[in-house]
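Protein modeling request. Please complete all fields; requests missing the sequence field cannot be processed.
Requester role: graduate student
Desired output: 3D structure, token encoding
Chains: 1
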Amino acid sequence: MGTILHDMPPPSSRQIELIQQGIASGFVDQIARRSGSSSTYICCRNLSLEGPLILDRNSSIRGIAKSRKRQSLPEWICFDQIVCRDVRKPANDEDEATSVNVMCCVTAVDPTWIGSISTGSALVKFGDLILDAPPPIYNRKEDSIMCSIETKFGDSGWYVPHCQVRMYERMIAGDKAGQCDENEIYRWFARYLLEGRIFSNLSNLLPMLNDPPALITVCLHTFLFELRMNVIIMSTHICIRLQRRKGLAKVHHLVSTLREANVYNRKSFVSHWSSTRKKFLYSAVKLWFKKSHAEQAKKIWLST
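Delivered output (304 residues):
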């Protein structure tokens, strides 16, 4: 049986955060949100209770708020149980007492945790993928292109900070919610491959490319009017050269090659890379090399 070490140092801020996350994940169906600017709360589930939820007057949450000079209580909390208590009213009132719903064993909850700790619960609903702000990222530890997804929580559908999900999993998801165009995962992987985020040594290719890899993920409108338009002023005439066809062709070649091979992360790339003796994707990638750096770029590519 364990004992309490009286000389144990207090937990660090990171340890406190992990403890709070653990508690919140265990009481995910008992998360409540503060009602506007008041001190009352509403549970994420539609409970058959009369009146809102309140904090106990001796709750440590109130003490923390005062000690940190906060103007208000935390917006999100979770609780262990609800106790119905009678509150006495002044003697001149007709009713002698009224009942209030008091939350016990309350813990503050950071709303950025809610999407991840409630994944798989009926309380969380995912909407559209968000591909612009913030843009998808490559998570090296997960070996996956991660993107944000619109997230709602609770029976009332409260918006909470976007949850991060694996784009490939959403692409092949059977449900329509949060699905994305099947090309998106390959576009972002192609971009991050050329930028050196998948294999760090490929970042040496960047000065040798004839176009920025970001070109792969921009929309067609931006492609035409921002990145691929070269304006040359000659006397009184403006010559506009659109290298659209060549640019779109090399983007399509690179993305379609990845899609046909179903290469969407480092592991799947290495598998094809090994089986084709490093010939995989080279015909598509070499279109991005400047002619003056073609041989040097090829050596970097093959040395990956």
